[in-house]
Amino acid sequence: MMRAGKFVLIVGLVVLAAGCQRLSGGRNYAEPLPATPTTPVGSGQLAPLDPNAPAGGLNDPSAQPTDLASNPVAAPADAKEVGRTDLLGGWKITSAGDNCMAFMTLTTWSGGYRANTRGCASPVLSGISAWDLSGNQVVLKDGAGLIVAQLYSSASGQFNGQTSTGSPISLYR
């Protein structure tokens, strides 16, 4: 019995010593990876802006937002009734050339229910933090509770409307 105890003690010490060697930066550590080469950033002249392009838009920080709370988007004649559970989950969102994802939950949050977006280049779309229903209208809001967009359900099952910057917006699966 005494020999078994000594054997366990010796094996334990050997394992402990091996572990200490690993933690001390010994030969068992992998070499650090070399730096990854990068390509240089290009330079050159930008093409002139199109003077006939419409002013404003989602990517224009100087665009004046529309007050959608006091000036709501009119409901189309074929707008369908919408329930909260109809909006749960992931949606594709498009507006002014931006294509990204929106996710909606029933977690209560300021201004309605929790929402977030991923992959949106526009500050307006990436700022969506909440959603709510107002009759058959879907309202998307930012972190301050300001309305970002108003949408209505269409016969095709997608939601179409307008952003606070006046751009068309669509949610679809």
From TrEMBL:
InterPro entries registered for this protein in UniProt: Inh/Omp19, OM_lipoprot_Omp19_bac, Protease_inh_B-barrel_dom
Entry membrane topology: Lipid-anchor
PROSITE patterns according to UniProt: PROKAR_LIPOPROTEIN
Keyword field: Cell outer membrane, Lipoprotein, Membrane, Palmitate, Signal
Protein name as it appears in the record: Alkaline proteinase inhibitor/ Outer membrane lipoprotein Omp19 domain-containing protein
Main subcellular location: membrane
Source domain of life: Bacteria
Subcellular location: Cell outer membrane
Alkaline proteinase inhibitor/ Outer membrane lipoprotein Omp19 domain sequence ranges: 83-173
Region (Disordered): 29-77
